[in-house]
Fold these 2 entries.
Entry 1:
Amino acid sequence: MTLKVERLVVEHGAIRALDGISFEVDAGSLAAVIGSNGAGKTTLLRTISGLKDAKLGKIFWKDREITGMKPEDLVRRGLAHVSEGKSVIPELTVRENLSLGGIWRNNKSELEESIGEVINLFPRLGERMDQRADTLSGGERQMLAIGRALASKPELLLLDEPSLGLAPLVVEQIFETISQLCRQQGITIILVEQNAMGALAIADTGIIINLGVIVAQGDAGSLVADPALKSAYLGY
Amino acid sequence: MHSPKFLKNPNRRRLLFFIFLGWLLLLIGDRVDELRVYQGALIAIYTLAIGSVILLTGYSGQLSIGHGAFMAVGAYAAALTQIYFSPPIIITFLAAVIITAIFGALLGGGAARLSGPYLAGTTLALALGLPTLANQFEFLGGETGLSFDVGFPPERYGFDFTLYKWFFWIAALATLIMFWVMQNILKSRYGRAWKAGRSNQAAAELLGIHVGRRKVLAFTVSAGVAGLAGALLGMISIVSPSAFPLSLSFAIITGAVLAGLTSLAGSILGGLTLVIIPEIAEAISKNVSESEAVSANVPGLITGVLLILTVLFAPNGPAEQWHHHKEKKKLKAKSKGS
Amino acid sequence: MQQLINTLLIGVSIGSIYALMALALVLVWRSTRVVNFAQAGQAILSTYIAWEVVNRSGSFLMAFILAVAIGGLIGGLVESGLMRVLLKHANEGPVAAVAPVIATLGLLAVIRAVVGLIWTNEGKRFESPVSTAGFVIGDATLPFSRLNLLIIVTAAVVMIIFSIIFQKTNLGLALRAAAYNPEIARLSGVRVATTRTIGWIFAGAAGAVAGILVSPNDSLTPNSLDTLLVFGFVAAVIGGLESLIGAVVGGLVLGVGLSFVLIYLGTSLIFPTTFVVLVLILLLKPAGLFGAKGARSA
Ligand SMILES: Nc1ncnc2c1ncn2[C@@H]1O[C@H](COP(=O)(O)OP(=O)(O)OP(=O)(O)O)[C@@H](O)[C@H]1O
Ligand SMILES: [Mg+2]
């Protein structure tokens, strides 16, 4: 166990977005978080990464409580969050976006090295290093967003709907890459997705959220096989 | 309690209230010395100017830091009207209001599309630059300025009716009438629409309120009122660039913030404060040191500190803050009771 | 022809001062979303300090360095002591949107009063460190003087330093990222609150340079930088209020433009021109010449 969430309750003003969520994610595994619009997935990731405060409950990362810690401190503990909707800064160049990811380390050679690794993973970014991010295609932007997170050399990667608005072929590539990151580099990943099938196919475990509560969790394979879940939440 | 039928109508009640207030002021005006009478006129003028700012900022959400410029326009308009046409003074004041309102409408046409810092900066530029124009054009009288002469008080008021008392009467009456008018505008459909536009532009637009047009209207009315305040200020002093410095605009804003930007009723508190501050400064400089630097700068220091403290601790004005506090207490008491 | 070049040079000299003031305003705007009207106050305080140091030590260079450093310090103090508290405190209610601007006005009043209390309101003469007599070419004396040259060179050096910091360093990247998108910046480990303070420090320093450059050979009073504030604001708006390069270009354009108005049309049209330019830009090209679209509303 490396990430543990205990009875998390999060509110947006009067709206209770998460209502007592508990789960664990093992080190080096890939967990898919599935749920329909407004289920609370984004809220969950934002609370883990420190952007949003929890009302009740606790979050542990590598056996230390991180509830209420700031995102800028959590990055330094190996947490990276790719927020919903292509989280890149359009006014900056590709290189600058990637450098931003590793900026906290303040070490030029390490930064160059991690940028090199990102370019290996996404060669298309390498060809566009001095282009502004707003000139990239949607898929390239998503690659850049993931690349920015990877440049911080994370141990835990939170991905919020990376497939959003991308063509099926590109989605497949992105999922492939995500799976690689977990299998080959040992990064623990929490993948939030609407694309339930695609996400569960590459995940070890699945967590299904509806209206702020977990309705099912367990082995990804068994979730896919469950006919009741299938019709109710997985939508196919 | 039974009120007579005549008072059932809130409009009439308000009118009566203003008449009573006017009578009270006149009584006071009769019983104090000349300097106080002059200060009374000043309070009325500041109150009016503050009211114009509150009308704009508090009720339509637009921050103008250049109301001194509107006041200057009103003062010059009045002085020029008096010099060239010498109509009855009521007409002169009316001309000042209308001319400044037109000026405000022109500016408001542009301002409606601006918001926040852009509007603030533009009005700042106006406040700083407009009065200097007087130096460039001969007919505006240059640095020495023009005098706006409303004449002596009518003889039937008697000999001991001094010039300053006359000024005070005019200023107080004009202010009362204007506040009555402003109150009525705010209670009207237009006034409510402004408020809607202030708190949520998008929601107001959904309700079919044309925010842009309302903003222009708010600007127009506010400018007209400020123009009248400027004409009155010109009446008791002189119409020159130095009568409308940037610090006048700042003082008016300060008064409005202290009064609480969200309600007209506080204006008089703001007006009072603006007149009292220099008095305090005077007292301080007399006691601490005779230096001119002290008496010249302590008012600025006090206004600045008050401004900062108010936005920090009572952003909606001390009055509203208190109200809010009471409301909270009530709520607490209620939740305890249930 | 000669007059044309003269006008241009004088314009660049004035314009580079406007540009510095615009830079100061833009730096604060980008980090905090506030137009800092107190900038005129911060700059005048720094300038008086420079004046004092020149008087005591006779060294303009030392005065310049010291005053600019203190200008930066003042900027940092204003941010951490006032603006931070304000933005935390007063973020709801109908006047929340205008509260920061009002606070900067209050601060402007306070600083001016303090300056007046320390140095009195009487005009001080700030001696120019170099000759203000025009250069002589052949038998013609140009209006362009060594002081003008010093102004241009100093402003250029300051701008180059800024551009290196912003374009080439990690600090600059953090500042830009925090300005464009604080959330992504935080997720990348940037301490946004710190970058905000640094933005104000840079702004304070830039404003101080502008104040010191504009004052020599002129009378220094507690409000003698008010007009510079307005010209700086107009320059910043021409540049779009968001863009550092825009601020510099805006300042130069305004300076050169006004210089032409001054020499060919006369002083009386300086203010009307400025105001008309401001209003026209705001109405016709609301995002400035360099700004992003839709920046003006909200
Ligand atoms: N900033 C906010 N203010 C108010 N309510 C919010 C806010 N963010 C989210 N909510 C509410 O919280 C609930 C959960 O939202 P959340 O964004 O976490 O859902 P989601 O599962 O990510 O949905 P989607 O798949 O559409 O992205 C929703 O009801 C939403 O309206
Ligand atoms: Mg979401």
Entry 2:
Amino acid sequence: MREITLSKAVNEAIAEEMRRDETIFLLGEDVAEAGTPFKVLSGLVEEFGTERVIDTPISEPGFTGIAVGAALTGSRPIVDLMFGDFLFLIMDQLCNQAAKAYYMSGGKLNVPMVLRTNLGATRRSAAQHSQSLHALVAHIPGLKVALPSSAYEAKGLMKTAIRDNNPVVIFEDKLMYQDKAPVPEEEYLIPFGEANVKRQGKDITLIGTSSMVQVAEAAAEALAKEGIEAEVIDPRTIVPLDEETLLRSVKKTSRAIVIDEGHQSYGITGEIASRLNEKAFYHLDAPVVRMGAMDVPVPFSPALEDLTVPTVEKVTAMARRLVAGEMIHAA
Amino acid sequence: MSAARKKKTNAEDYLRMYRQMVRIRAFEDRANQLYLSAKMPGLTHMYSGQEAVAVGICEALTATDRITSTHRGHGHCVAKGANFKEMFCELLGKEEGYCRGKGGSMHIADQSNGNLGANAIVGGSMGIATGAALSAKRLGTDDVAVCFFGDGATAQGLWYEVMNMAALWGLPVIYACENNGYSEYTKTDEIAAGSLTARAEAFGIEAHVVDGQDVLAVNDLTQKLVARARKGEGPFFIQLDTYRYHGHHVGDINREYYRSKDEEALWKSERDPIVNFGKWLVDQGISSSDDLDKVKSEVETDADAAVAYAEAAPYPDTREVDMHVYAPSAA
Ligand SMILES: Cc1ncc(C[n+]2csc(CCOP(=O)(O)OP(=O)(O)O)c2C)c(N)n1
Ligand SMILES: [Mg+2]
């Protein structure tokens, strides 16, 4: 199968959907000629013109609000938010307006809109350009949240997001844009709420999101050399969450670590761990462990930044301890 | 004050302005080199070309007057009184940096000289500068606050909210818009409707346009507005027309698709703020070209020493990673 970059996969998904459906348009900062700073959207304006690939001023709440209005009235906008950190600017439009319109109207109005943005630290971009804020939007009922872990997922999830009749937020890892993965030429979609079991194992379950799937896979590889068989699962969407697949795995392995790049406190790792504790308690041999980013603003200095994220070494060490039974009596 | 004495004072002021502009250029040339030689983590936005704006304005301020800076903030930082050593240390993520390596290029600031921070959120400091002005008024200091931002930042709704309040409450704040013609990879003409001065005037705020390549024009105007702001006649708005010599950031090399080489050459060859001011100083008999060359070589020696110092300086101790998340408070 051919291999393409995550960037190209996103580009293809959007182009294919725009060819299929005239009501789709794109808007955001420097999306047209520049094709975004990460060059993900290059070529789209040439094919679809500036009526459908629209450069906006640096007015995030404004253009998000415009997208909500357009989505309520027959369009299917894709909003490009250059950095996930700018979510804080658009929270009202996304969370008070887009997320609630369907419910508040008793099902009479809906917002078929995609917000594509990014997450991920270790790019030396400091505290306002390195955050992983997906837990914030996952907290708000009415929003769906997808976290592609490779080019394959990026394409299939984007196409599903565009066809969804709800506001969907997709977070791409900004360090993965040039990573290649096999992506079929033929059309495919990845349904929301279907986790992907990346590797089978019987001793421990490693649940990773976004780029943390790679970390989990590398940890599983290292553990295999020591005779520990780790199962690796990528939930792919955190809203909706495929609890069934996660529970099935944990009931088999009796141990789990949840790895995610958002801050550890009040985050995705805690949510997933808590669901496993609630629903698989009697099957567990150890507490489900959360491994998120440190609860600090992301520091600029490489000497500090690298300490803040989960790594293969940290995950491997934690898995080893869990399997050895060390965490059972943890406070 | 006698006429002779006034001339002498002015001459000192002029030479200091010249030196400060040269210092900014020297700093940026080295920052760019550090990036190109892969010694600097991350990206940075060069201030070269805009020196007369930062220097003309900051030379009209006292050390306790506040400024807020932007992602393109090295120039403001130097102009408000910072040292090279701590600046280069910050750029390289070293412990002795102004922010102990936690901020990096986009958050660099010498806080002890009234710089409230560079900001990686476009328009993110507009409220902060206005709040500093409110604080000055409430506390009865006669400090003013200058809010630096780019032409692209005028698209942020926050600006209109805070201008309204600043005008209602007569705050000593000066909104200084550095109009370099571009927001990232887009001509600002294409994403800004109407006139910027008219936007300020709509709130009853006195607005000025000044040649941002002419340090004396900038300084004269700012001195007058600062004096009036101290007397309670603020707020004010200044549009400073200028140009950035480099790409949007150091990695933006192939940029002819949005900005022509001819245009860049024209600004550099005919409107350079340092060259033109140097010529004027010589023409007026205030300095000789030898003396100006001497200033340059002194500054460059200084800058090289600071770079060498920063390269050898230690990174912060890893224990610093979770320091400074919360300020200590009395119980
Ligand atoms: C809220 C926000 N939106 C977008 C960006 C990305 N961005 C960084 S600089 C920039 C352009 C800013 O243009 P301008 O204000 O004119 O400043 P200049 O870069 O020209 O100095 C953009 C869009 C950002 N940092 N913050
Ligand atoms: Mg600009």
